[in-house]
């Protein structure tokens, strides 16, 4: 996990690092103003195509839109598990009683990801979606 990284040229963590033993990459970190860092399309592609992204087996990340998941899945050949939070996810925003509410994001993911993916919403951190890729 990168934690808080300095903002020099970019708000992105140092994805140009090389280490053959890193298999889990947690980039759902906080910026200097303690807001959760969110990756946009360009940054998702840059991360996925980096040496860390190419060898990553498990990724923990927050992205701007649900479509960003394709940038990660299509460019990370070794990815097997994804813990992802979407900036545009409104699950649980209205109130704490989400038992009977339709989970449109989960429905969208199940409709748009391959059937070989197992998709669940974390029961403790309800903003997190866990995806296993087979």
Biggest β-sheet: count, sense, barrel? 5 strands, mixed
Instruction: Give average pLDDT, whole number.
Output: 82
End-to-end separation: 24 Å
Structural class: alpha/beta
> What sort of overall outline do the alpha carbons produce when their principal axes are compared?
globular
**Count of discrete alpha- or pi-helical segments spanning 4 or more residues:** 4
- Side by side, the strands of the main sheet go 1-2-3-5-4
Compressed to H and E, one letter per element, the order equals: EHHEHEHEE
Description:
With 134 residues, the protein is of the alpha/beta class. Helices cover 22% and strands 19% of the residues. Strand 4 (117-121) and strand 5 form a beta hairpin. It starts with 23 loop residues before the first strand and ends with a strand. Mean pLDDT is 82; it is low at 1-9.
């Amino acid at each position: 996990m990168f934690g808080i990284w300095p903002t020099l040229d970019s708000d992105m963590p140092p994805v140009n690092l090389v280490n053959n033993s890193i298999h889990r990459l947690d980039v759902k970190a906080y910026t200097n103003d303690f807001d959760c860092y969110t990756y946009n399309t360009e940054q998702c592609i840059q991360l996925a195509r980096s040496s860390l992204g190419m060898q990553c087996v498990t990724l923990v990340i927050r992205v701007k839109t649900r479509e960003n998941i394709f940038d990660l899945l299509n460019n990370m050949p070794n990815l097997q598990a994804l813990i992802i939070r979407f900036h545009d996810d409104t699950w649980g925003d209205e109130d704490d009683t989400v038992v009977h509410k339709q989970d449109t994001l989960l429905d969208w993911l199940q409709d748009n990801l391959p059937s070989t993916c197992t998709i669940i919403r974390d029961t403790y951190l309800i903003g997190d979606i866990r995806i296993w890729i087979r």
